[in-house]
Write a structure and sequence with these properties.
The chain is built from no helices and ten strands. With 114 residues, it is an all-beta fold. The chain has a six-stranded mixed β-sheet with strand order 2-10-9-4-5-6, with no helix packed on it. The protein starts with a strand and ends with a strand. Helix content is 0%, strand content 48%. A hairpin with a 4-residue loop joins strand 7 and strand 8. The radius of gyration is 13 Å and the shape is globular.
Length: 114
C-alpha cells in the first residue's frame, strides 16, 4: 500500500511563507496527477493545487498567485510553496493523487497568525 508522508507545516505570521513536502512510498508520481488538499475543522477537504506528470499545474482561486506546486518524480515527492499566507490558509494540508484515490497521510498543520 502506498504511503504518503507530509511535512513542513508550522506556525507563521500572516504574510509569511512555508514549504510543504510530501514523500510517497512506491514509484507512482510519474503516472499520476498529484495534488495538495487542505481541511479545517467542520469543513470538507478542499483541493488547493494540482500538478500532472508533465508538470502542468492548476490552482484554486483562493491560492492562485500565492502558492506554487512542484514535483520531483525521481524522489517521489511533491512540494507546495506557500507565500503571502493569510489567516484563512490555516488548515491541515494533505497530498494525494487526483482524484484522491490513495490512502490519506497524517497531513501537516499550517497555522497562520494574524
Amino acid at each position: 500500500q502506498v504511503q504518503l508522508v507530509e511535512s513542513g507545516g508550522g506556525l507563521v505570521q500572516a504574510g509569511g511563507s512555508l514549504i510543504l513536502s510530501c514523500v510517497a512510498s512506491g514509484n507512482i508520481f510519474s503516472l499520476n496527477t498529484m495534488g495538495w488538499y487542505r481541511q479545517t475543522p467542520g469543513k470538507q477537504r478542499e483541493l488547493v493545487a494540482l500538478i500532472n506528470h508533465s508538470g502542468r499545474t492548476s490552482y484554486a482561486d483562493s491560492v492562485k498567485g500565492r502558492f506554487t506546486i512542484s514535483r520531483n518524480n525521481a524522489k517521489n515527492s511533491i512540494y507546495l510553496q506557500l507565500n503571502s499566507l493569510k489567516s484563512e490558509d490555516t488548515a491541515v494540508y494533505y497530498c494525494n493523487a487526483y482524484p484522491a484515490g490513495l490512502h490519506w497521510g497524517q497531513g501537516t498543520q499550517v497555522t497562520v497568525s494574524s
